[in-house]
Structure formats: structure tokens, C-alpha cells
Amino acid sequence: MSHKIREYEEYQKQLVEEKMERDADFLHKKAERATLRVCLRDKYRLPKSEQDENMIEIAGDDVDVPEELLKMVDEDATEEEGKDSILGQIQNLQNMDMDQLKEKASATVTELKTKAEEKCSLM
Description:
Elements: H1 2-43, H2 50-59, H3 67-82, H4 86-95, H5 98-119
């Protein structure tokens, strides 16, 4: 009987250890996601989240964003830099004079009209 009790106690101990390990892994994953969200918030100048900050603090200093996710964020950043920013586009519009804008708009409308007429010829 004592052998069965010992086995049961070992089994219970093993279950508790496994649960603690799973909980630690889960906490680590949550902290990684929080770190990524903080990076994205910094990148896009969004308001900080106290909840994410707390999650990172709870997990400690050993939290790193997975390499693949960092690459995605970096690629995203380079794409954004490659494109003209909204401010840059607005400044370009300010630099264009109204006649250029009218000509461009008129040409676009004419082009759309001719394409539509080609596709939808009436009998």
C-alpha cells in the first residue's frame, strides 16, 4: 500500500511541476507578444499600454521578441520608409500648382472614360 501512495505522490508532484513549466512558458509567450506590441506602438507612435508594460515587467529581462517577428516588423518599417509618408505626399500636393492638379485630374477622367467606352460599347 505504501508503494502505491509513494507512486501517487510522485505522480502528483510531476503534474504540479509540468503545470508550473507550462504556466512559465505561457507567461513567457505572453511577454514576447507584449514586447512586440510595444515595438509596434513605438514604431507607429501609438499610446503605450500599461498592461503590456506590466506583463513585460512580470516576465523579467529575459524576454525577447522572436527573430521572425522582428524581421517582419523591420521589413514593414523599410516598406513604410520606402513609400512617401502622408506628410511628404501633402507637401508634394502643396508644391504642385492648381493647373497641374486640374490637368492631372482631367487626364485621369478622360482615360477612365475611354477605357469604359472601349469595354462597354453600345450597339
